[in-house]
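Reminder to self: C-alpha cells first, then the designed residues, so the page reads top to bottom the way the pipeline ran.
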C-alpha cells in the first residue's frame, strides 16, 4: 500500500516537473500512456495473458481509454500548468464525489432512495465540494488558484467517474485477464492521444520532443513506467491479496503524498486554508464511500 500510494501520489509531481522542463500536456499524455502500456504488455506477456479479441470489446475499451486515460491525463497536465501538484492531487480525490453525483443524476446509484445512509452520503457530497471551494477560494481577488486550471483538474476527476461507471457496465465479466485488459486499454489511450500530438508540439524522431530537456524526459519516463504502468499492476495485486477495501484506502493517501512532495521538492506553499480544505474534502469522500455493516438478524426461538 505504501509503494502504491507513493507511485500514484507522486505522479502529480512528475507531471509538474515535465511541464517545467519543456514538455507540453499532449506530449506528456502520449508518452505516459505509451510507456504505461509497454510495461503492462511486458507483464501480461510474462504472465501469458493474451490481449482481448473482437471488435465489440475493443470499441468498449476505446471508450474506457478515452475517459479513464487519454482525457484525464491531458486535463491533468493542462491543469498543472497553473495549479500546484499538491492541489492537483487533492482535486483528483474528488472522483468519488463525482461518481455519486452522476449516479444520483442518472438514477443508477445503488443506494439512492433505498439506503438509510443516503442522507449521510449526500452530506459527504456537499462537504466534499465545500472543501473544494475552500481550496480554490473564488472570492479572493488575488492569490487564488487559476480557474481554468482548477476546472481542468476537476474535469479530470469527473472523467474518471464516467469511466468507472462505463467500465463496471461494459468491461466487467468479459473473461479477459486484468493485466491484458489494462494493457489493451492503455494501448488504445496512447493511440487516441497520439491523434492530438501535432497540436501539442512537433515530434522529430531524430531530435526528440521539441523544447524538452533530459530532466523533463526523465520525469515523464518515471510517470509512465512507475506511476502509470506499475501502479496499475500494484493496484490489481492489492485488490487480489488484500481486497477492494484496502485498495480504496490508498485513495486517501494520494492527496497527502502529492501535497507533501509538492512542498518538499517544488517548494509549493502550504496555507492554512489549503490544509483545511484538503481535510474537508477527505472527510466528504469518506462519508460518500461509507457503507454500513449489514445487520445481523437473530432468529427468535419459539415453542
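Designed residues (303 positions):
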Amino acid at each position: 500500500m505504501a509503494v502504491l500510494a507513493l507511485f500514484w501520489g507522486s505522479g502529480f509531481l512528475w507531471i509538474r516537473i515535465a511541464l517545467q522542463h519543456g514538455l507540453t500536456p499532449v506530449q506528456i499524455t502520449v508518452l505516459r500512456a505509451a510507456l504505461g502500456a509497454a510495461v503492462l504488455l511486458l507483464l501480461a506477456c510474462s504472465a501469458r495473458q493474451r490481449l482481448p479479441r473482437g471488435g465489440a470489446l475493443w470499441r468498449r475499451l476505446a471508450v474506457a481509454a478515452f475517459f479513464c486515460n487519454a482525457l484525464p491525463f491531458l486535463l491533468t497536465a493542462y491543469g498543472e500548468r497553473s495549479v500546484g501538484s499538491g492541489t492537483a492531487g487533492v482535486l483528483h480525490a474528488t472522483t468519488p464525489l463525482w461518481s455519486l453525483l452522476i449516479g444520483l443524476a442518472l438514477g443508477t446509484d445503488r443506494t439512492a432512495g433505498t439506503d438509510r445512509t443516503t442522507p449521510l452520503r449526500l452530506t459527504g457530497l456537499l462537504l466534499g465540494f465545500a472543501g473544494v471551494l475552500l481550496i480554490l477560494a473564488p472570492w479572493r481577488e488575488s492569490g487564488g488558484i487559476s480557474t481554468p486550471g482548477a476546472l481542468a483538474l476537476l474535469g479530470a476527476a469527473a472523467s474518471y467517474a464516467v469511466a468507472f461507471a462505463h467500465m463496471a457496465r461494459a468491461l466487467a465479466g468479459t473473461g479477459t485477464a486484468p493485466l491484458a485488459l489494462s494493457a489493451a486499454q492503455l494501448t488504445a489511450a496512447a493511440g487516441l492521444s497520439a491523434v492530438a500530438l501535432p497540436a501539442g508540439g512537433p515530434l522529430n524522431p531524430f531530435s526528440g520532443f521539441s523544447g524538452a530537456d533530459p530532466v523533463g524526459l526523465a520525469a515523464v519516463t518515471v510517470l509512465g513506467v512507475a506511476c502509470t504502468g506499475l501502479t496499475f499492476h500494484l493496484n490489481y495485486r492489492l485488490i487480489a491479496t488484500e481486497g477492494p477495501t484496502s485498495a480504496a484506502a490508498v485513495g486517501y493517501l494520494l492527496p497527502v503524498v502529492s501535497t507533501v512532495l509538492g512542498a518538499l521538492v517544488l517548494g509549493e506553499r502550504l496555507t492554512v486554508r489549503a490544509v483545511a480544505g484538503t481535510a474537508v474534502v477527505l472527510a466528504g469522500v469518506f462519508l460518500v464511500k461509507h457503507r454500513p455493516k449489514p445487520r445481523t438478524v437473530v432468529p427468535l426461538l419459539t415453542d
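Confidence is low (pLDDT under 50) at residues 112-116, 202-208.
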